[in-house]
Amino acid sequence: MEAEVIEEKRDPLLNRVEVKFRLRHNGATPSRKEARDKLIALRGSDPKRCVVAGIYTSFGARESTVYFREYDTTEDMLKVEPEHVLRRNFSEEELEKLRRGE
Question: What global pTM score does this model have?
Fold first, then answer.
């Protein structure tokens, strides 16, 4: 799986960096967890402050567009991100630990 940055911008109001990636893959569209792990490793980010907002693939294409958000703090992420996005990126146990500040 190869990742390439298409666009990167800073959103100072929401304390985050929004990155749009082109992800090349063989076979099926990668899962949200696979994409998230790859992009976190590529950027050297803290996994507690990052979410994949969406993965979009055209039918039959071996290329996906991934919207990735990296927050300044975990608290900022928990305040801003909708609940359904958090649940898609973290397990229930991980989410509880994040909310408790662990």
Answer: 0.90
